[in-house]
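ok trying again, last paste got cut off:
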Amino acid sequence: MTDVSGSKKKNHPPDNFASFDKMTDHGDGDVNCDAFHYAELNRDRIYMDYNATTPLEPEVIQAVSEALQDAWGNPSSSYQAGLKAKAIISQSRENVARMVGGKAEDIIFTSGGTEANNMVLHTAIEHFKRHQNGKLPHIITTNVEHDSIKLVAEHLQRDGKADVTFVPVSTVTGHVEVSDVLAAVRPSTCLVTIMLANNETGVIMPVREICQSVKSLNKQSQRLRILLHTDAAQALGKIQVDVGDLGVDYLTIVGHKFYAPRIGALFVNGPGVTTPLYPMLFGGGQERNFRPGTENTPMIAGLGKAAELVTTHGASYERHMLDIKLYLEERLKATFKDKLHFNSHFVGSEQLANTCNVSILGAGLQGWRVLSHCEKLQASVGAACHSDRGDRPSHILLSCGVLPEVAANALRLSVGRRTCKAHVDEVVEDLKNAVELLEQTK
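nice, full thing came through this time. structure:
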């Protein structure tokens, strides 16, 4: 999480789980935040950076705690604590698979999304090398990917291990166009990797249509099959994700984006059989040798429980977040009127239910500066992994056609499952006060 607030008040955790018993739970995952003036409002900060990371759900904390206490044994052992660990891992694998519409045997647990993404690119290069020795493999991606794709691809290209095409997204739609991806395909193309939803704009990419088109190319030629991957880090828990519907070979799962611990997984459609998968690590043979190392049972337990919650309550989570985001946008428009520009609104594109990227227009109102004068709002100006770039405009927004002076003022406000309208009212008032203060001190 990127917290650029200049306030010297104590920084509390983003969610007050101790107050959940006082909130109205409708039984289907909907929480009536308006019925109870959520305790977070009585604290000094309001969190709206859920695209950076999320807190753990109480049920997830319980699952992790129970695994720490009861399943401390090595999952490869035959005594009770080891058997308990093995059972928890098996159940978690089922839960994660169900969340994405896959089979348990298709799930490989990893340390996080970065490792999963690296494994996919490593596999694509290795597979091509084994079948097309002497030729340089070619990868297609976009110019708005997460660094765990972008920097790996650049590294491979710089070291002469692959050629890479970074297809630009449309400045009209904010997403990559299917025709542009197809136009980039070469005889040596071994992988197409396109994120499912962008972490800054919330724009959902046409992954399904891209996969359908590339699969048609695979059938029409005698070429080596082009592998298909999507990084679903920002999509899971916010929209329904089904690997069968998308048509991907690989899908990256990142726990801390949907109220799970910092652990990840990789969906592979028939790993090592239908779809190639080559390990980057070698060791004790865990995860069927694809990702060896003694399994992190407590974190896997947390991931499995969080996945179960998404499967059960995902639709109501999405409805609630969309309702709150729309209310946030309406309150912002009413407060700032023509001084506002939504960087997440694009013609003909769908957006995540929870993401609002907005600029308050005016000299001296750079996003980091506005946030530093907020007393309550915890948010970011873009991706948390880019927080060291100071006041430079986001390259993601610039790539989407947002003007530099507008992009410099950007705020990424991402709401969560328990963000309520009272939170929004407090945040908009906080932003109004910060802007007025900055305008008075020009």
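cool. Residues 1-30, 34-42 have pLDDT under 50 and may be disordered. Residues 360 and 387 are 20 Å apart (CA to CA).
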